[in-house]
Design a protein that fits this description.
The chain is an alpha/beta fold. The protein is built from eight helices and seven strands; from the N terminus they run βαβαβαβαβαβαααβ. The protein starts with 10 loop residues before the first strand and ends in a 6-residue tail after the last strand. The structure holds nicotinamide-adenine-dinucleotide.
Length: about 250
């Protein structure tokens, strides 16, 4: 699909847009004509994304927000609306990986932090976004889950639980607000070449080989390929699609 002008005059908020999939998504929306709000805890990364979007000739601002804090999320959406007047598209993408350990050994601090960012963070964002979208008459939300939201990822119990939860929140809100013109979907990427993932496999060629082996296309995803699915879900090409968890996985789940 040609997205060059699909999002003209739209306002898109992307959390975790200072890096990886979030940055690629923000820049793809900007290329499609949207004004973008880049939210992140990483100000340097966020400002860099803003600069790149502005180079594409689009309006872009950075707002610092930790999605695990409901007060900061409320301020984030409030500031977005103060600045741009509305919120057409929200991509709840901010997320962390947490420790690698089996369930019985999993550190409690990591359990709490991963759930706080990946699951409560998405919930807080959806609450604020939906309230605004109800007030203005509609909108589109995409939550970034994971293949680990669809099946087990051994040694990542918190991450897996959080992403299963994100899909549950997505389906629930999609049913609740379908008649108010708010669509809510999720994307479920397989391993994608971002700083988060590179950090995980760096120096571990055996792990890289093992992960690749399960992906029929025999390569990892690129952030732009996840962004492409997110943009489609937010586009006029997907007006009959809601409550879905779309696997973007090189054929893994086939
Ligand atoms: N890369 C993969 O292989 C992969 C696969 C499936 C799903 N995902 C999901 O995609 C999303 C993006 O991941 P990525 O790979 O681009 O990672 P990344 O680390 O490159 O980017 C994540 C961004 O989120 C920000 N962030 C972290 N905690 C935050 C918080 N509390 N509040 C606000 N911002 C916060 C980080 O500062 C960072 O800029 C995550 O939800 C991740 O779980 C990634």
């Amino acid at each position: 699909m040609d997205n060059r002008h699909s999002f003209l005059h739209k306002i898109a908020l992307i959390t975790g847009a200072g890096s990886g999939i979030g940055r690629a998504t923000a820049l793809a929306f900007a290329a499609g004509g949207a004004a973008v709000v880049v939210a992140d805890v990483n100000e340097a990364g966020g400002q860099e994304t803003v600069e790149l979007a502005r180079q594409a000739g689009r309006d872009a601002i950075f707002i610092g927000a930790d999605v695990s804090r409901s007060d900061e999320v409320e301020a984030l959406v409030g500031e977005t609306v103060r600045r741009f007047g509305r919120l057409d598209i929200a991509v709840n993408n901010a997320g962390i990986g947490g420790a690698w350990a089996r369930t019985a050994d999993y550190p409690l601090a990591d359990w709490e932090r991963v759930l706080a960012v990946n699951l409560s963070g998405v919930f807080y964002c959806m609450q604020q976004e939906i309230r605004q979208m109800l007030a203005q008459g509609g909108g589109a939300i995409v939550n970034v889950a994971s293949i680990a939201g669809q099946r087990a990822l051994a040694n990542a119990p918190a991450y897996t639980a959080s992403k299963h939860g994100v899909i549950g929140l997505t389906r629930t809100a999609a049913q609740e607000y379908a008649r108010q013109n708010i669509r809510v979907n999720a994307v479920c990427p397989v391993f994608t070449r971002t700083p988060l993932f590179q950090g995980m496999i760096e120096g571990n060629a055996r792990l890289e080989e093992r992960l690749l082996h399960n992906i029929p296309v025999r390569r990892f995803g690129e952030p732009q390929e996840i962004a492409g699915a997110i943009l489609w879900l937010c586009s006029d090409g997907a007006t009959f699609v809601t409550g879905q968890a779309v696997n973007v996985d090189g054929g893994l789940t086939a």
